[in-house]
Amino acid sequence: MSVPGFHSPRHPGQKTLEALALRIARLFSENGLRLASAESCTGGWAAQCLTAIPGSSAWFDRGFVCYSNDAKREMLGVPAAILKRHGAVSEPAAAAMASGALHHSRADWALSVTGIAGPDGGTPVKPKGTVCFGWANHESCETLTYRFDGSREAVRAQSVFCAFDGLVRRVASTAVRRP
Fold first, then answer.
1. HSE (side-chain half, CA atoms, 13 Å) at 38
2. Which domains does the chain have, with CATH numbers?
3. Under a CB-based contact definition with an 8 Å cutoff, are residues 101 and 143 in contact?
4. I need a surface site. Which of 37, 92, 123, 170 has the fewest CB within 10 A?
């Protein structure tokens, strides 16, 4: 899926991801916000980038790595019916993961990532590189699906970039400094 205004580098390096994580750190710190993450195909890569920043405990509450469907159900409360009807790689699952991360944390915002990084696991309907994202606060949740090209590592790196970019765009457009 192509989204106007979004461009993910084909394979963003760790330095690119950490620079975007620094933007998140500033945005959350300046607005008194806290973040949680719920990751599947990225395996905690987003949380690693965020917690590599000194002082991140002031704004990063927690991260969930929920690779299996059981973990998604048990740790985040993703309904079995969503997983059965839509699959783990779906916008409904991404929304439930982001909402579950909010519910099981003290965060103001949550991001979620669930997808097929490859090289196996793809289908004609959901090919390798299909990744679904969720961004939620206590008022709303938005989801998007992208299809990325490249190796497993490239798909995962692009996914972290997309999750961070989407978070920055959404939080920046709604942020009001809290006391």
1. 36
2. 14-174 (3.90.950.20)
3. no
4. 123
Tell me the C-alpha distance between 128 and 155, whole Å.
9
Predicted confidence (pLDDT) per residue in 164-176, tens digit: 999 999 999 986 5
State mean pLDDT over 44-73. 98
Q: Which amino acid is at 97?
A: M
Task: Convert the pLDDT of each residue in 36-49 to its tens digit.
Answer: 999 999 999 999 99
Looking at the DSSP bridge assignments, the partners of residue 144 are 133
**Amino acid at the residue 125:** V
Closest CA to 28 of 2, 47, 9, 50: 50
CA 43 – CA 137 distance, rounded (Å): 22
> What's the one-letter identity of residue 1?
M
CA 126 vs. chain centroid, Å, equals: 18
> Cβ contacts of residue 79 below 8 Å, gap of 6+?
73, 96
